[in-house]
Amino acid sequence: MSNRLATEDSPYLQQHKNNPVDWYPWCDEAFAKAKAENKAIFISIGYSSCHWCHVMEEKVFEDMECADILNKNFVCIKVDREERPDIDKHYQEVHLLLNRRSGGWPTSIFCTPDNKPFFAGTYIPPESKQGSVEGMGFKDLTKLIAAKVSENDPKLFENADEIEKFIQQKDKPKEATVLKEDFVKNFILQAKNNYDTTDGGFSLAPKFPQVSILQALLTIDRLHKDISVESMVVHTLTSMKKGGMYDLVDGGFCRYSVDGMWKVPHFEKMLYDNALLCDVYTQAYLTYKEESFLETAKEIADFWHNFMSEDSLFYSASDADSEGEEGTYFVYSYDEVYKTLAENGYENIQAMMDEMEVTHHGNFEGENIIRLKGTKKPAYFNDVKILLQNLRKTRAYPFIDKKIQTSWSSMMIKSLFSLGALDEKYKQRAIKSLDALLETMYVNGTLYHTTLIHKQPKIEAFLEDYAFLAQALLCAYKFTQEEMYLIHAQRFANKALEEFYNKGEWNFSNGEFVTKADISDNTYTSPVNIMLDVLLSLGTLLEDEKYTHFAFKTLEYNSYDLGRRPIFYPYMLSQMLRYLKGDRVVKSSLDNLQKNSLKLSSLEYPFVQYKANSENGFMICGDKSCFSNTQNIDEVNHNIKNSF
Description:
Elements: H1 11-15, E1 23-25, H2 28-37, E2 40-46, H3 51-61, H4 64-73, E3 74-80, H5 85-99, E4 107-111, E5 117-121, H6 138-150, H7 154-168, H8 183-194, H9 211-224, H10 227-240, E6 256-257, E7 265-266, E8 269-270, H11 271-288, H12 291-307, E9 309-310, E10 313-314, E11 317-318, E12 321-322, E13 325-326, H13 334-343, H14 349-355, H15 381-392, E14 400-401, E15 403-405, H16 406-420, H17 424-441, E16 442-443, E17 446-452, E18 459-460, H18 463-480, H19 483-500, E19 501-502, E20 505-510, E21 514-516, H20 527-541, H21 545-557, H22 559-564, H23 570-581, E22 584-588, H24 590-595, H25 597-601, E23 608-612, E24 618-621, E25 626-630, H26 636-641
Parallel strand pairs: 1-3, 2-3, 22-23
Antiparallel strand pairs: 2-4, 4-5, 6-7, 8-11, 9-10, 11-14, 12-13, 15-17, 16-17, 17-18, 19-20, 20-21, 22-24, 24-25
């Protein structure tokens, strides 16, 4: 018999509808019941493609003993963090406060009947580990909590009240620091200190792509030509695309690598990772002209188009697991690869297997993740890839979460427009996707955060939705010069300022949970830093200083942290450099701008806008004046350099 989650749209909640746990979605009814019956509240937060969320469901929420304890003593609430990032953000802050370390998913929160949190964890196994306080299992923990709440244990309720006070405290603004280019030196030093010289990247295992750091380094290299910066970017991007975390067969990146070599991934694929990586590989190609970077960017875009889209809308994620196990769809046995190559007439098969790191013992639980030993794809690989794809077609594809997210979709649309400067088909895809997203998520003057495909959206937008959508619209304007995109971008920026901005500080949400927006680039780029990009672009394109002023106030408010720990705020650092140095605007005819989109995108200076006019040549302008005019596109780069 299904529980209350059966009527919910969220794919994650739907995954739990047949649990024996009497789940509620997030709703007033659940909290009223807890208060009326003096029951503790258990809040479980996760998402549909999360491997450890699946493990906790199997080991805990499907276990009848665990379910009986919960149903008797708790009101249990399930939350999809992708559907309600405001709730997730609030409880991630609770986890950080209680444990003094970042949380993750699944997130497990226990609250008093008045919904005051007092315990936070992540995955909790069903059974306790003997002799370990930290190893208390779910059954023992829930029995203990139930008893203390039932007895109205004064210490537990005092702790909950104290935690609530801490949560409600507001940070005092720090003393402003003068914005200066010297912040870059500190950033490069911090990047070098974190850099893995062997395999690239900026952390030990588990290793995430940290795209914002790569983007900032690209910006710095385009401004200052630093060989050490170039080396970090090129080596990292080259190492990442060798296979493992990058799926060489279907295309697309998995969320992170469990090892330091980018070899063994958690196999879920997220839209935001792939959108941002598509863009950074495109920008790296434009900077260094390494053809394999462009190939990778196109493969990412094609994967999402072929596997993860419908009616020009992008799905949010695919699962790590299929057929009940992690990675089953993605890996190969030695024998099946050898047999396939032999049946298709290949010679020197063992040498090919060695190049693709396919061995008898495997590189993942006895099976093989396809990965290249060298940095270049062998000549045969594109043909062999089709054979490997055909082997996968005999397997169950991982679960796909068909949620449409405004913020994440906007990231991919922006990347497609950037790629479209090199290949027209991606530009056409971007236009179709942007128009479909606006039609789906901007309804009767209200912008929404998420919906299941072909359903009416219900959850209104957060700061990240306004920020990333406005950024995508400005990118659309840059490459099409359609005024309506600029008008929409201004509209959403104005609404974001009205709803979320206060004297340099930004909120992430303003509804049930008023949460402050992070300025650090964590899972993906901070929406505050994307708003800086949007405001500076609008200030330039509309010649309206109020947008530039709001950008400055945001930078000033955060300048103390930015100056001292810029490695945490790489996209903000890039926008600070942009604010200090200023945009350049290339003005020419629409035909000139579009015919020369590749050369214009390859300009060394990273902060360039376009404006179509009646010019036959190319005029270079700043915010107050124009500097030069040339008929020759090949002189534009030189003329921009000479404008400083």
